[in-house]
Amino acid sequence: MKKGMKHMNKKLTRKLVAVLMALTMVMSLFAVSLVSAEDAAPAAQAPAAAASETPAAETPSKADETPSKADDKAKEDDKAKEDESTTKKEEPTTQKEEPTTQPAEEPAPAEDPQPAPTPALYPEDVYWVKKFKDKKWYLVANKNSTEKVKETGVFRNENGWWRVEKGVVNFKATGLYQNAYGWWRVEKGKVNFKARGLYANKYGTWRVENGKVNFKANGIYKISKGTYYVVNGKVRYDVTGVIKSAGPDWYYVEKGKVNLNAYGLFANKYGHWRVEKGKVNFKANGIYKNKYGTWYVVNGKVRFDVTGVKKAGKDWYRIEKGKVNWKANGLYKNENGTWYVKNGKVNFKYTGKYQGYNIKNGKVISKA
Predict the structure, then answer these.
(1) 296 occurs within a structural domain
(2) What is the mean pLDDT of residues 202-231?
(3) Do 251 and 220 meet the contact criterion of CB atoms below 8 Å apart?
């Protein structure tokens, strides 16, 4: 009987263990299903929590009280997603706060804007020339003032600009005088805005246009007393040579003045030129003399690069490096043949034999 009881106990024990194991498996599966449900919908939980300021009370289960590693990982993932979502939401706000070149708060301009007054930069903009009871004209602090100012320069009033010396207009002043705006042609104390030409002062002779020295003037300028070479508004009395003007013409200048009587060959850095009445003749072609010799000229310029037999007018000459060789005697070639040259010039009157060649009218026709 004892054996029978032991046998029954063993069977019961086995069944109880089996039941317990089954129950354990069911509970494990239930816990896993809860974790899977939480993992499957983390995004749905996060917005719901953010949208509700006072969430409903929940009764946590044992699984909630003792989270598994999977739960920890799910919560960390949810937190990272929430942080990432918050960061992404803040970025557009930062971009909106960046300043723009035309902020919306900038006030719109008036419909009829008035220009801001130009600040006075020079005394000439403020000081004023005014007549006093003693019939003299004085420089005062401004148009509406009677405070005298002892300055020297060129100042204005409603009648023009005036030469002022130590606060008083000098009606005897004639010449070129300076103020902050330039140098001006003054005649009997007043600026002559119609003045145009060349005018002198102690610093030189200057090109004046509309009463003001034009420091950008460059070239040849004519007045009643002559024609002069000007550089940066000033006559260059230190220059002698062939000078290019602002236009197409070139002139021969002596000490700053064009020599209208000049004839001959004159040089500059570009070459030697045929000058007639003080001006380069670019149509000159032929031979021309100066004290250094007789030269071959093409389009107004001595051709130092030419050697050969060249025509000038009705005659042909032996040219060597641009110069006529008056000592040349013999036979010389060019593109038209071989020629008999006597004293630097082709002798078209010669017919006969020379150095084994038959010559007719100055040209070699065959060997003798």
Answers:
(1) yes
(2) 95
(3) yes
Which candidate, 141, 143, 179, places its Cα nearest to that of 162? 179
Last residue of a domain, one of 166, 194, 222: 194
Is pTM beyond 0.85 here?
A: no
User: What pLDDT digit, counting tens, does each position of 75-126 carry?
Assistant: 444 444 444 434 443 333 334 333 333 333 333 333 434 444 444 457 888 9
Long-range contacts of residues 121-127, Cβ cutoff 8 Å, at least 24 apart: 121/180, 122/179, 122/180, 122/181, 123/149, 123/151, 123/153, 123/155, 123/180, 124/153, 124/154, 124/155, 124/156, 124/179, 124/180, 124/181, 127/151, 127/155
Number of domains forming the structure of the chain: 2
For 301-360, the pLDDT digits (tens) are 999 999 999 999 999 999 999 999 999 999 999 999 999 999 999 999 999 999 999 999
**What residues contact residue 301 under an 8 Å CB cut-off, 6+ apart?**
271, 272, 273, 274
In DSSP terms, which residues pair with 191 in a beta bridge?
Answer: 186
DSSP states along 134-167: TS-EEEESSTT---B----EEEEETTEEEEEETT
d(CA 177, CA 197): 16
86 lies in a domain? no
Whole domain around residue 173: which residue ranges? 123-194
Q: Which of 162, 179, 194 is the last residue before a domain boundary?
A: 194
311 CB-side CA count, 13 A: 5
Q: Is residue 340 part of a domain?
A: yes
What is the number of residues in the chain?
368
Taking only the tens place, the pLDDT of each residue in 24-65 is 665 655 444 444 444 433 333 333 333 333 333 333 333 333
Asked, for residue 20, whether it belongs to a domain, the answer is no
* Whether 123 contacts 151, CB under 8 Å: yes
